[in-house]
Predict the structure.
Amino acid sequence: MRKKILPVSLTLLGTGTLLLFSAGLTPKPPMHAAPARPNIIFIISDDHTQQAIGAYGNRLSKTPNIDRLAREGAMLYNNVVANSICGPSRATLLTGKYSHQNGFKTNNGGVIFDVNQPVFTENLQKNGYQTAWIGKMHLGTLPNGFDYLNVLPGQGEYYNPDFIDSQNKTTRHPGYVSDVVTQLSTDWLARRDPSKPFMMVVGHKATHRVWEPAIEDLGAYDNVTFPLPLTFYDDYKGRVAAQNQDMTIDKTMRLKEDLKVHLNYDAMKRLSPEQKAALYDYYEKKVSREFDEKKLSGKALVEWKYQRYMRDYLSTANSLDRNIGKLLDYLDTSGLAKNTVVIYASDQGFYLGEHGWFDKRFIYEESLKTPFIIRYPGVVKPGMKVQGLVSNVDWAPTVLNLAGTDVPEYMAGRSFLPLLTGAKKTIRNGAYYHYYEYPVDHHVYPHFGLRTSRYTLARFYGPASFWELYDIRKDPHNLTNLYGKKGYQKITADLKKQLKGEIELYKDDDALALFTDGTR
Ligand code: SGN
Ligand code: CA
């Protein structure tokens, strides 16, 4: 049986506080014991990867507000996801369960989220919280556990988006999606019952494909030339699934729909004449003209596509970041900031040209890891950098723990609050992964595996069965498959044992059947 976790206020009055301050020689004034039920805002963006964020080391992108949050809170460097894709990641946030346990394994195939299963916000409601989810959700249905819902249908639109509310009513909101999401969020905050704590999920659409920036951000990165990632011209040697994907900037990325070369402006029925004119001025008169004039081919063309991709992707992030700033300002001016936990995460990581790719799905580092930043005044030490391994199955348990609410037995994850208070350096030795969606959209073979602090072991299946092993410390870009190589028998056997243990513990029967089918 899982041990009940103490509410945060009690944790802090115990060993957490002592450990938190034992590092410095000069005693600092103690942080205030946190309220048992802080407000919680969970901002979750779409495909916004760690390597796109200033605080995580990107020197070219402009993310001042996310960087502010990182300075005022803790940044997690090794937050991995259990299934690197949109809907499944959000289903895991809601349930604290792996995809095979909550049933939401893929975005496609007509699967919708099973609303007959418990979600973490119901536990918060029982503990007196008001709950809301506003913006991108992508679960094919509206889940229980929310006092207020106003979500984008499916992927949603960047311009003049429709929203579906708790009564299933659809309303079109003029403007850019990030601004509308923020407006709806602060509107809800302003009219909520102030006598109760709240938990609000703010779901952003940016930075999802097809990367349509806000009008004010068009061309924001036109003066920047982005260096090619080291692995841009990866030859995928020794990695069969990597050889067979369909997500390269070279072959898969579309000049028209993705990079807006000679768009069909007549077909843009949703846009206002002003919006259309601004897009035309930028994409037709500038981008498409440049494309026509340059007459590029071969490597020059791929590299031009990469620059265009980076410019549009990061420009959508400008609006995302600005809107995070607006929400932080609202918390400041309304006096909510000091009693509100703010989390910033993305549903998964993303490839920004690494391996020549965009998109996600693989257990490889750039799509496996996702940003996670948390500010909790008085509890999380500002500027903290957390290296301990956590998974998105741990998100719901952690939020419940922050709210002083017991973590239900059905959840597979565990709270990583002890990492945030400095009470512990490690809460898990491995994170389980299972990706299913094949062949749509990007022909990534299904696979399951384990990520430890040092290694990644993966078993691919579907069109072909094989294992891959990476030493993350020596090979952070997953270029050298060590599986079956001399000298790696012992670590492979140990990791397989650990992986099998996870599969058995969490009863992933499909993986177990594949694990024991004798295929090397
Ligand atoms: C769309 C995109 C894909 C993307 C999936 C899933 N194509 O289908 O590139 O992988 O969404 O993304 S697009 O041309 O329609 O943009 S997810 O974030 O929802 O998982
Ligand atoms: Ca996503």
Summary: The CA atoms of residues 46 and 207 lie 6 Å apart. Residues 1-32 have pLDDT under 50 and may be disordered. The longest strand covers residues 39-45.
